[in-house]
Amino acid sequence: MSSSADSRSAPVADDFVAQLAGLAPDGATAALRAFRGDATRYTQGSHDALFSTDVADLTLRERLFAAWYAALLSNAEQTALAYRERLLTLASAADAQTETTRSLLEAIAAQRAVPVASMATTDQRLAAILHHTQALTLRPAATGKPALGTLQAAGLTTRAIVALSQLVAFVTYQVRVVAALRALEARA
User: Fold this and answer.
1) How buried is residue 167: exposed, middle or buried, by Cβ count under 10 Å (0-12/13-18/19+)?
2) Which InterPro entries match (predicted)?
């Protein structure tokens, strides 16, 4: 068992939550997080694992879309913007997807809903992922067997469904942590 002194350690490299919260590296809130270093490391480790290239059956594009949409639906504008930028960077690397991705992001953001008609023919799998993300974020009790059947019909494997559910749960947790840290930073 580790002591509290063991959990106080150097700051986590590439601490995405600290970036989202806009924490000053030498501020009181950063010091408080350093005191609970394990929580910070585990949160960043979860983020890294969920957005790793090693995740099977769910593309990075699909995961970034789900993360962006979960943050958007959670009214976490800065977090949604961060995932949007990562998604656009990924799309620009694929070259041909940049305008398609940008248009889809704008359409969803304007309506705060998935444009069913336009996506039904172009990307049924992504539409199913985004619908499930919406349900998990806003109405988790509505994600029973019929919702899982819809995901399977769209081509998602059981591993992909589990990864998607973990991702949405993590992003909604991340949103709450960032909001709490911002509040602490504002009072420090």
Assistant:
1) buried
2) AhpD-like (IPR029032)
Q: Are 116 and 94 in contact (CB under 8 A)?
A: no
> 36-64 burial, b if ≥16 CB within 10 A, otherwise e?
ebeebeebbebbeebbeeebeebeeebbb
Query: What 8-state DSSP symbol labels residue 140?
Result: G
**What are the C-alpha distances in Å from 102 to residues 92, 132, 145, 155, 166?**
10, 21, 32, 24, 25
d(CA 29, CA 186): 9
Q: Tens digit of pLDDT for each residue in 52-109?
A: 988 889 999 999 999 999 999 999 999 999 999 999 999 888 766 788 888 889 989 9
How far apart CA 51 and CA 89 sit, in angstroms, is 14
Task: Using alpha carbons, select from 11, 16, 30, 1 the residue that is nearest to residue 181.
Answer: 30
Q: How far is it, in rounded angstroms, from Cα 170 to Cα 168?
A: 5
